[in-house]
Task: inverse folding
């Protein structure tokens, strides 16, 4: 009798364990985890984000202040608080440079991209029914104002026909530091930062050239996931 009585406890424990394993998925489906709806987590039409976050067109939760405004990612359903949703970005308009005839996206997106993401973003842009692209380094330099060394025709030798670090890059490409604000036309809007061009370094195709408009320095950055920059797409006019 003593032996048979001792066997009851393991049997009861086994039954309880099976019951817990069976009920756990049901419990999980009924209780919302505290991390759901936070920044970076998935969302869709049937799942909202926590207060202070908004569901984006890319179906993830982000801070409400960084979604739906000009230059930012559109809200779920391709809705913008300002402007029009174009290729997942809230766009207000364009700016035409009367000195070159180039038409530029204005303002630029408010977040950074890798080089390949920037190329794809501009190539896929359908705003105003025209074909857009990421500017070459020579096209990007046409936006520079009030810095003779790096403006179009300036002493800096990095142009579409000269893309190697040596002999193209010289100290003249270090830009200017004599004024505050961006070295571009006053009609342009967007982050005053370093912008990608589509031009790769001829001597190292793993890098691409760009312009930092805060001091109009011409420099290069990694094209891999380690390199990020701002983006302003361009197309031919009119």
Result:
């Amino acid at each position: 009798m003593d032996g048979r009585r001792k066997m009851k406890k393991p049997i009861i424990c086994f039954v309880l364990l099976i019951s817990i394993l069976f009920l756990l998925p049901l419990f999980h489906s009924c209780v919302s985890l505290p991390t759901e709806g936070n920044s970076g987590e998935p969302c869709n039409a049937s799942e909202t984000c926590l207060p202070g976050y908004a569901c984006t067109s890319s179906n993830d939760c982000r801070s409400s202040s960084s979604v739906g405004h000009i230059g930012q990612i559109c809200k779920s359903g391709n809705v913008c608080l300002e402007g029009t949703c174009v290729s997942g970005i809230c766009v207000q308009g364009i700016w035409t440079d009367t000195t070159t005839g180039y038409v530029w996206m204005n303002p630029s997106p408010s977040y950074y991209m890798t080089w390949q993401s920037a190329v794809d973003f501009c190539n896929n842009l359908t705003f105003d029914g025209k074909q857009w692209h990421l500017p070459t380094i020579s096209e990007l330099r046409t936006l520079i104002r009030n810095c003779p060394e790096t403006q179009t025709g300036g002493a800096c030798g990095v142009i579409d026909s000269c893309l190697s670090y040596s002999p193209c890059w010289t100290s003249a490409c270090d830009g200017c530091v004599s004024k505050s604000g961006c070295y571009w036309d006053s009609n342009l809007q967007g982050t005053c930062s370093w912008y990608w061009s589509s031009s790769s370094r001829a001597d190292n195709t793993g890098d691409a050239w760009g312009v930092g408009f805060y001091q109009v320095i011409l420099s290069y950055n990694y094209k891999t996931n380690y390199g990020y920059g701002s983006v302003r797409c361009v197309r031919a006019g009119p």
Summary: The longest strand covers residues 204-212. Residues 8-30 form the longest helix (23 residues). The beta strands are 53-55, 61-63, 84-86, 89-91, 93-96, 103-106, 194-201, 204-212, 217-222, 234-235. The chain has a mean pLDDT of 83.
